[in-house]
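Bumping my old thread because nobody answered last time. Still need a sequence for this structure:
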């Protein structure tokens, strides 16, 4: 039996323990509340920092556009006889010829395209900023007219490195981190006499074939403002398709040159992987080797693509990047002997190696199939026309049309061949697709309302046969022109 004194002591201990529990609970609650408050404050700070970064980026863009506009006005006042309308009609080949012969000055061409770019951007929101250094480069061009692209203004995708400018890939976290030097292709352009003058918009993280990000907003299609320009080189596609640039550089890991080119009615080439240097062309992440990205040209016609490749595949590039195979451009590409008309997570290193091996096997098997069928080049479909907004993120399955050739490392390009007619729109009402499933229904919704939009085909060749791919593209382009006559 417990005595009264002992019982009293036990009761006091129990009471003290209960008080300690309540105190501990209160302290724990307070600690949790404080922790949540700290997390909330940190979140608010990060939000504020992100908002400030975006604001600074937009202010830089606005300032560059305003300064460029002022420079254009000054030039026009002092050069009232410049025939800008004529300059804008010239192909790249014609433009370079007249620049070399002195019939046009680099200043006339530069300010003509600068003015047009500013006008196009107001409608399409395709530029992330004017490269104001281009005005200084214009003044210091070699008077001996050296370089295949002497005096030609060239637009570049935002993820191409240009000294003292960001390569954000549309990510807020990567703003305010200007590059220390030009990328290899930008440097080669300059050595060939070209003037990189504007950077163009892309989707956030490059991982979409639309063209929108939280920093610079949505780029729209030059043929229909209610349609996407495609991506990820969507700013390039829109600017060139809208007439604001005669030549541009994009990059392609799943169709990112070919899709916006097709959507915007221009030509684009994804060269063989590693044919052109990727030093200074920023991917969203490094080290991914299963499917390789390729930088490449975009322009209004195939000859312009070929001329750009000829300029880039030079001793300048081979010396700046010794990892690139020193294969000059073959201007005498042969005719194709046959034409046939009708893409990755791993849990371990061994699994990664298995995946790489499977890709290698698939490439060799495809090459053997092509040889067995006596195929040199392939003419095949290119999906489109340009989609309505928000559908690119839903219809990821369509990328198999383009991503296949990134996996195979085959060069591939697109050429516009026709436009959507009223009859096409009428037939679309009854379209059910091949499988009559969810994807077919989405595709029908995506392309509706596309009358007048360009439609393109895709041309493909085997690895390192970029010139042959361009040759097929040129043949297609020629046939289209003949049929229109």
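Sorry it took so long. Here it is:
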């Amino acid at each position: 039996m417990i005595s009264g004194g002992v019982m009293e002591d036990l009761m006091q201990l129990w009471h003290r323990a209960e008080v300690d529990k309540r105190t501990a609970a209160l302290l724990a609650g307070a600690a949790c509340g404080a922790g949540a408050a700290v997390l909330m404050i940190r979140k608010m700070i990060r939000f504020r920092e992100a908002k400030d970064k975006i604001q600074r980026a937009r202010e830089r863009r606005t300032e560059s556009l305003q300064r460029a506009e002022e420079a254009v006005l000054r030039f026009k006042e002092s050069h009232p006889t410049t025939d800008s309308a004529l300059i804008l009609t010239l192909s790249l080949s014609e433009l370079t010829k007249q620049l070399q012969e002195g019939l046009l000055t680099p200043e006339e061409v530069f300010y003509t395209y600068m003015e047009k770019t500013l006008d196009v951007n107001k409608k399409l929101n395709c530029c992330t900023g004017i490269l104001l250094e281009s005005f200084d480069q214009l003044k210091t061009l070699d008077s001996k007219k050296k370089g295949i692209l002497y005096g030609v203004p060239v637009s570049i995708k935002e993820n191409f490195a240009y000294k003292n400018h960001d390569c954000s890939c549309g990510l807020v976290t990567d703003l305010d981190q200007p590059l220390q030097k030009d990328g290899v292709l930008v440097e080669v352009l300059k050595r060939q006499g070209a003037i990189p003058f504007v950077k163009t918009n892309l989707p956030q993280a490059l991982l979409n074939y639309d063209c929108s990000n939280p920093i610079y907003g949505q780029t729209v299609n030059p043929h229909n403002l209610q349609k996407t320009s495609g991506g990820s080189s969507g700013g390039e596609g829109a600017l060139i398709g809208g007439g604001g640039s005669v030549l541009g550089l994009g990059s392609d890991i799943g169709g990112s040159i070919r899709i916006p080119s097709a959507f915007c009615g221009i030509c684009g080439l994804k060269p063989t992987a590693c044919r052109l240097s990727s030093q200074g062309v920023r991917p969203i992440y490094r080290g991914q080797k299963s499917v390789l990205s390729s930088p490449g040209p975009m322009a209004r016609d195939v000859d312009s693509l070929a001329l750009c490749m000829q300029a880039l595949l030079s001793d300048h590039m081979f010396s700046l990047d010794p990892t690139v195979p020193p294969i000059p451009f073959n201007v005498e590409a042969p005719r194709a002997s046959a034409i046939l008309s009708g893409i990755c997570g791993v849990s371990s290193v061994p699994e990664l190696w298995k995946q790489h091996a499977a890709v290698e096997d698939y490439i060799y098997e495809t090459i053997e199939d092509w040889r067995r069928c006596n195929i040199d080049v392939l003419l095949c479909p290119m999906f489109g026309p340009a989609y309505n907004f928000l559908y690119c993120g839903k219809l990821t399955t369509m990328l198999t049309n383009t991503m296949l050739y990134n996996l195979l490392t085959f060069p591939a390009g697109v050429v516009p061949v026709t436009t959507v007619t009223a009859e096409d729109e009428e037939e679309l009402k009854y379209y059910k697709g091949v499988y009559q499933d969810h994807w077919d229904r989405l595709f029908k919704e995506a392309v509706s309302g596309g009358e007048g939009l360009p439609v393109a085909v895709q041309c493909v060749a085997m690895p390192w046969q970029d010139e042959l791919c361009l040759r097929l593209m040129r043949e297609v382009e020629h046939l289209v022109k003949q049929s229109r006559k």
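The chain has a mean pLDDT of 92. Let me know if any region looks off to you.
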